[in-house]
């Protein structure tokens, strides 16, 4: 109403402006003289996070000339696409996945990411006939033959202006023998889709590193290293492929973990670093601003124990992706580690980004994190550390030349994370803290441990495999079946188990030194109806043991893959004799037997 009095603008002129030093002094007073630095915390990257941030920290960063937000593809200031991932198995032609995708697109999804185990079997004709190609955002991950798949896709879709991406992910990160052919094939993919400005065929797969325990700094540095490898190897004057063509075909895949502010800063730092890198190649800002980032919730943090906690994890991870500026987002269903795709978990996962858009209205602001003293400072720290790591790699011959060292550095960091999880320093709710002692599994632990799809690279895996093996032992003990089982826990689990055991002991009973088996020793859990024993053996011992139990002919049988978790069962007498014959040794911690500790884990 016109006669309603208006309040005066809110100002803070009545308050004195306080400096950083004034705040530090107040903190010292509240801490009764203690150093405010005692409130700092350190990230796995080695970054120091302060207890508070002042506008002086923001002013010290100076002007940032690089783009911080996504290249808007919609009318909303902060538009992103909700793109669930569907895995298509080796024996599947994809019809069921396409039908599932059609329903998802009618229920809030903006696109679909098909992860193809056998791209040559996927029926692209059925996809073209049943999905709205002109409006849906479609992604495809292939493990082989990217050029052949792209050719078939373009033939099936005719002249449709496809939107989406192709991600070539051949599996274990190694340089294939036919690398020159792969360069040729991926370059051909970029040329074949040059007329499709919104379909990107050269993926920089940062998710691979993140999901194996890499820090945010390592993930960013690896992305930059891959980008340079693409630019250096794919440019060809003969084929009229220049730096702009290669850069325009590239897109980035990242995984988003639970460290909320760190992940926001990671995506913002990525855009800054991308602009810096392309500037070095003489490319205009417009090319850098067009970068597409696909963010997926991290498999590294997913758990099979107390799996509904995954719903909470993926919600914060999706929110980080949105606020950080991802162009498309895949939210993993909470039961994806052990359950077949199903309508319930897929719908819940699909609704997470929908709620962030339709109810939280996070699409209404272009860059919600802009101006935050903390996030801007963290963005700058990440960008500088990742750039320094990237430059170090380039000085040692580049990403492809240094890939072995890079993966070893990531492995060392992952082992450190395993140690912190085992000691409780890093908490995984429902797994190493606040466990549900009455949890009833929605899966068969025996089948899960035997499944080749059970992800052993995750942070929770060592805890899970021990808990699952423990559950199997107590079930077997209750049923009193005269059989026995051996579960291969893996080469890195000994240290984890030692740390976990030690942490379970009263402080005055904890050993003062680590009395561990030799490095590289395989840890196994031997379970009979009467007892469970943690043991260890070297690789030749376990290989001979496994071949004996599985009755393999060493000359005629294929090479036995000793990948954890490997479950072997036999009658009790045979198993006992074999374990003794092949020289397995019992592993105890300060005199405590496996049975004692397993009982503690189960709260018995």
Q: Can you tag this structure with a few keywords?
A:
MeMalonylCoA_mutase_a/b_cat; five-stranded parallel beta sheet; 43% helix; 21 helices; 17 strands; alpha/beta; TIM Barrel; intramolecular transferase activity
Structural description of this entry:
- This protein has helices spanning 20-30, 55-61, 95-105, 124-130, 146-157, 179-192, 207-210, 216-234, 243-249, 260-280, 285-289, 309-324, 343-358, 373-395, 403-422, 445-450, 461-479, 493-504, 539-549, 572-581, 594-601; strands at 41-42, 48-49, 81-82, 85-88, 111-116, 137-142, 163-168, 199-200, 202-205, 250-256, 293-297, 328-330, 483-490, 522-527, 532-537, 566-571, 585-586.
- It is of the alpha/beta class and 604 residues long.
- The protein has three domains: 20-55, no CATH class; 81-395, Methylmalonyl-CoA mutase (TIM Barrel); 445-601, no CATH class.
- The strands form four sheets. Strands 3-12-11-10-9 form a five-stranded parallel sheet.
- Helix 8 crosses helix 14 and helix 12 packs parallel to helix 13 (343-358).
- It is globular, with a radius of gyration of 27 Å.
- The model is unreliable at 174-178 (pLDDT under 50).
């Amino acid at each position: 109403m016109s006669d309603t009095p208006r309040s005066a603008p809110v100002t803070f002129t009545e308050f004195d402006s306080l400096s950083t030093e004034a705040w530090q002094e107040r903190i010292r007073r509240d801490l009764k003289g203690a150093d405010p630095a005692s409130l700092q915390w350190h990230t796995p990257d080695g970054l120091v996070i302060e207890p508070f941030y002042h506008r002086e920290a923001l002013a010290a960063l100076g002007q940032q000339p690089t783009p911080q937000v996504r290249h808007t593809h919609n009318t909303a200031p902060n538009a992103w696409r909700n793109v669930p991932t569907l895995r298509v198995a080796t024996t599947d032609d994809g019809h069921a996945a396409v039908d599932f995708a059609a329903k998802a697109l009618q229920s809030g999804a903006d696109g679909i990411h098909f992860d193809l185990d056998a791209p040559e079997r996927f029926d692209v004709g059925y996809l073209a006939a049943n999905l709205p190609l002109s409006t849906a955002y479609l992604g495809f991950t292939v493990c082989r033959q990217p050029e052949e798949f792209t050719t078939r896709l373009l033939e099936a879709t005719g002249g449709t202006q496809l939107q989406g991406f192709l991600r070539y992910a051949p599996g274990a990160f190694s340089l294939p023998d036919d690398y020159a052919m792969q360069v040729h094939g991926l370059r051909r993919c970029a040329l074949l889709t040059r007329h499709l400005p919104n379909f990107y065929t050269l993926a920089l797969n940062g998710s691979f590193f993140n999901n194996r325990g890499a820090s945010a700094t390592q993930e960013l540095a690896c992305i930059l290293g891959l980008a340079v490898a693409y630019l250096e190897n794919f440019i060809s004057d003969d084929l009229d492929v220049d730096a702009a063509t290669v850069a325009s075909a590239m897109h980035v895949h990242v995984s988003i973990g639970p460290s909320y502010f760190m992940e926001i800063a990671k995506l913002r730092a990525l855009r800054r670093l991308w602009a810096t890198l392309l500037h070095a190649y003489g490319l205009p800002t417009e090319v850098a601003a067009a970068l597409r980032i696909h963010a997926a919730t991290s498999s590294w943090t997913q758990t099979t124990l107390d799996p509904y906690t995954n719903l909470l994890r993926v919600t914060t991870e999706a929110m980080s992706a949105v606020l950080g500026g991802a162009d498309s987002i895949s939210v993993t269903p909470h039961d994806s580690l052990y359950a077949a795709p199903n309508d319930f978990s897929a719908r819940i996962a699909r609704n997470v980004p929908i709620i962030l858009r339709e109810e939280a209205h996070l699409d209404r602001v272009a860059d919600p994190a802009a101006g935050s003293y903390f996030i801007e400072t963290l963005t700058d720290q990440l960008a500088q550390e990742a750039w320094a790591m990237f430059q170090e790699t380039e000085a040692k011959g580049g990403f492809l030349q240094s890939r072995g060292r890079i993966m070893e550095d990531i492995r060392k960091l992952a082992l450190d994370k395993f140690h912190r999880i085992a000691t409780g320093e890093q908490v995984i709710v429902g797994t190493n803290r606040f466990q549900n002692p009455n949890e009833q599994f929605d899966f068969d632990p025996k089948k899960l441990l035997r499944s080749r799809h059970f992800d052993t690279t995750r942070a929770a895996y060592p805890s899970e495999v021990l808990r699952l093996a423990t559950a199997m032992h107590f079930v077997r003990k209750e049923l009193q079946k005269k059989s026995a089982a051996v579960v291969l826990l893996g080469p890195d689990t000994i240290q984890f188990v030692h740390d976990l055991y030690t942490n379970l002991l009263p402080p005055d009973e904890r050993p003062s030194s680590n009395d561990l088996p030799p490095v590289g020793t395989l840890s196994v859990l031997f379970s009979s109806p009467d007892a469970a024993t943690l043991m260890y053996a070297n690789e030749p011992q376990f290989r001979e043991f496994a071949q004996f139990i599985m009755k393999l002919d060493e000359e005629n049988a294929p090479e036995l893959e000793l990948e954890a978790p490997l479950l072997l069962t036999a009658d009790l007498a045979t198993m006992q004799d074999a374990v003794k014959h092949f020289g397995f040794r019992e592993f105890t911690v300060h005199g405590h037997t496996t049975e004692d500790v397993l009982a503690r884990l189960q709260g018995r």
